[in-house]
Amino acid sequence: MAQIDENPFDDTDEIFETKRPLKKDSFNPETIFHRDEEINFYVNALQDVAVGHEPNNVFVYGPTGVGKTEVTRWVRDKLLEKADDQDVPLEILGPVNCRNYKSSYRLVSRLVNEFRESKDELPNSGYSTDTVFDFLYEEIEQVGGNVLIILDEIDNIPPDARNDFLYDLPRAEASENAAIDQACIGLIGISNDLKFVDSLEPKVKSTLGEREIKFGPYDANELRDILGYYADIAFHDGVLTGDVIPLAAAFTAQERGDVRQGLKILEKAGEYARMGDSDMVTEEHTRRATETIETDEILESFENDLTRQQALTYVATTLAIIEPDHDARTKRIYSLYTSLADSVGSESRSERKLYEFLDQLSMQGFVRSEDHNQGRRGGRRFIYEVTDDPVDIINAVVKSDYSEALPNNVWDILKLYKEDEATEFEAPDPDNDSQRQIWQFT
Ligand SMILES: Nc1ncnc2c1ncn2[C@@H]1O[C@H](COP(=O)(O)OP(=O)(O)OP(=O)(O)O)[C@@H](O)[C@H]1O
User: Which one of the record's GO molecular function terms can you name (predicted)?
Assistant: First the structure.
């Protein structure tokens, strides 16, 4: 039994010098590694601005965690420095992450407020979105010269306002409706969702994509340098054994070449070492970290990215996939979704709504569907898959707020699924009342 006068906390940390470089986007590196080519493209696209010509719009795209935002910040600072040296008027807003603004009103007013002193800032509501756009144009016109607006994660701009931001805004000086005469607006849009780009109207695509810069995933050698740089700052000297960085880099490169994932592995490996009272972080700690990272990432999505309805749909899809001899078809997913909603006391929505949730999950990359043509029988049906391992998903659900939703025999079914013995299990016959439910929801 713990004594009341015993304090269980350690005085010092033998492993980490500082954790900040490993935490999500809270540290700006002094060096950018392995992005010379992309930086060159950027500089070419923005050279006009540096000398006071009109700006080009730039579209930056590529998967998550590959340096799009960091490189953009670096280029922005260099550009401001040069413009300042040359006495070229230039204002740059952002990067503003569109994900943080749930309505177009909030997003435009955030841009307006960048120009205003705090006493004149716009409130969170009170004007129409059109009026707030007018305020933005007034502010931009008042500063005059070139104004660059950097919008990150533009796929999160509410659909009804996409044209306003991605087409009308960068062309405002040509429009009769916007009071822009002296100023010139350039838009830099960043996205990691290529499906989103395809879904844009051609005129929007061509306006935004005057200059396009593509960022690819990092390979293992590049990740070694990048992770090594952050590890040098984050860990005490000499605590990492030689194979930690190569292993974390190799795993991350195999997954999706995302620096953030590599940093998470390093943090976790360090924590395992600390928990085990080891004074070194070893290969073993790193391997353990790679094993749990997938579940942790899914858990983070439950906490940050998914609405309650999307989360229930995602879990229902996963159950439909692991249950034996059963394709994850929309009808089946819907029936599991209603049971899940029931068990957490949520109201279930209509089947039509479920299609929307599945679409949203697909847009966010959690599920994908295959369109099966039924041949001579006619008709089509969609069969769903999840993009992560169902085992990792269920493990994440257990740690999440949705654990109560799971049927209580989920481990038995998951075990069968894992052992690939599913075929020995009779599929429930949906026409037979007593067989309809293999899941036991309490
Ligand atoms: N080449 C690099 N050199 C140093 N640090 C890097 C490099 N690339 C990425 N990073 C670091 O990795 C993290 C993720 O990078 P960043 O935010 O730029 O990714 P992103 O491509 O914008 O991702 P997302 O699309 O998810 O926003 C940041 O902490 C960033 O500083």
Answer: ATP binding
